[in-house]
């Protein structure tokens, strides 16, 4: 008896040529990519002058039922159960989808790539680690987002992949969410704009892009069994708006539906999300891929709009075929799933420009990583101008903190990038990237005495600090997929370490390596605070360049730092009860039901909108970040046309060149039921000392709309709008009003 996979494949072996291509080792096929142009006479779908839609339609007509079904499921992931007999066809990533060699349609080789390409270690490859996604959001820079995406796209292709699972854009509703570092912060316009630009440039490298996790997967605790309950209006104006913007900018090949349920239905079988919103309202043309193990049914999921199950075929393999044969799924429904996958393959260029393995450009990657880190480091406190440090005036520096001699922490889970020289990290290993703060600081001055203390013994660290001109304390907070933080405090007694060091030497500067916000009970006692996030392959050099003023920091926080978790919308993290169903049952039964609910009753009030509406003080507001120079705002003028246009001046009134991120917020009419204000525009303005520039920003009218549940559509409210301009969500010196009809 031949195994089932072999029988499935028999349909593919209808001609000798196809047999040869199928049996040829994967490596050989990479060496001899097909030249589509040569074969387009017999294979009209390979004519790149046709639209992706036309090409997909032509291929669809050629496919057998088994070939069609092969498009709608994966074939396993290394480490996910027993490998399938065809596992050798995979590229070592998160999974793969079979191609149709006889038609010149390549396999889809998928890799996670949140801040760099995953799984290098076990595959003997190299990947650049960029600063984490939340860090890149702190740049507020669409060009940086584009550079980020291009680099990942290039490294994916160099490693033989043609699909990325990056593009995380769930809003930071819950800052303890262990995946906050993989996302773009708490504001939908900022997050959606940046993820869209990142993905647009990633896809320009001819990889299938994927935006995730759709939707309301805003915490890790109980992610497979939670029902996120939220009103349509709140969902559409917050989390979904980030997706909507990202999708409109990038036209991504795929959307990954999330593990959780939303208003009662699992996201991967949620008709409202997948069909009403994505397909109908947003006109999304790509395909919906389930999160790994996030499919729960065949009929319901297929009808709701799930196009592809990953990483296996529990529901979209034999069960799908049976359902087809029993007449329970119309052929048109299957065709629509396949058409969407094919269309994305043509639109992204993976058919016309097959991925070819090559050597990753390590130097270029390191350079990009450093530049992006420099644009994402946020200066939070700088008392009496302690920063930038002047190597000419300092004699001694204490570098304190665990691993600060050899590395900086990185974010874990499926986002993890493996550092050079490392073995495959185990799930939930803390991974320190070999970018040494100690060395980077030593490199700043031959005459500097730079000594190190790990901080394991706070007394000895304090002793060193007391004998040094300045103490730099590197502290970390490690986060990962699969769990949430119990609170926002630094772990491992690091608060006490900082207190001790600052007591010994008030000229203490704290460098934070965090994936989300942290509380700072020691804030008043230190002179400086720098948020470096998970800073990537060249993090230490970037931090040193900021500390010593070779780079004037320009980044601003994409999330609020609260004073205490008591100030969060849900002070108590909501978790499943202990007698929950358990992961295996939830993923396998097909009859899974969520076991608990999170009521997102803060609704529209996400992030700063919550603190504004509740009149709460914060530690550091959304949009906040210092520079080594100072900026002045004057002369706001507002006009209304097809968009609302704001003109104002920003002047550098300090004596250093710098970049100011000027922010614009809008307040909707009083009866709108909206939080006090929302971010609607921003600009990064580069200014020499004394220089002044006029900034002109157009606010699209859609950014001023509200979602109306009764008509299920967006509407603009007539009335008085006010606009506020300044350097952070809590420092807005310019104000103007406008009445809109
Ligand atoms: C994560 C996804 C990831 C996938 C494949 C899932 O556990 O939620 O973000 O892309 O695994 O590794």
Structure description:
The chain has 741 residues and is of the alpha/beta class. 28% of the residues lie in helices and 19% in strands. It has 23 helices and 27 strands. The strands form 8 sheets. Strands 10-17-16-15-11-14 form a 6-stranded mixed β-sheet. A 4-stranded mixed β-sheet has the order 8-7-5-18, with no helix packed on it. A hairpin with a 7-residue loop joins strand 26 and strand 27 (734-740). The model is unreliable at 1-34 (pLDDT under 50).
Comma- or semicolon-separated keywords:
single chain, 741 residues, alpha/beta, 6-stranded mixed β-sheet, 4-stranded mixed β-sheet, 23 helices, 27 strands, disordered N terminus, binds beta-D-glucopyranose
Topology of helices and strands:
Layout: H1 4-10, H2 16-23, H3 26-31, H4 36-39, H5 52-62, H6 65-70, E1 95-97, E2 108-112, H7 120-123, H8 133-137, H9 142-158, E3 163-165, H10 188-203, E4 210-214, E5 226-229, H11 232-237, H12 239-250, E6 254-257, E7 261-262, E8 265-266, H13 271-281, E9 287-290, H14 299-304, H15 318-325, H16 331-348, H17 362-374, E10 378-382, E11 396-400, E12 408-409, E13 432-433, H18 437-442, E14 449-453, H19 458-466, E15 470-477, H20 494-504, E16 508-514, E17 528-531, H21 539-547, H22 583-588, E18 596-599, H23 608-613, E19 631-640, E20 643-652, E21 658-667, E22 678-687, E23 692-700, E24 706-708, E25 713-715, E26 719-726, E27 734-740
Parallel strand pairs: 2-3, 4-6, 5-7, 5-18, 6-9, 11-14, 11-15, 15-16, 16-17
Antiparallel strand pairs: 1-2, 7-8, 10-17, 12-13, 19-20, 20-23, 21-22, 21-26, 24-25, 26-27
Helix pairs in contact: 5-16, 9-10, 9-17, 10-12, 17-21, 19-20
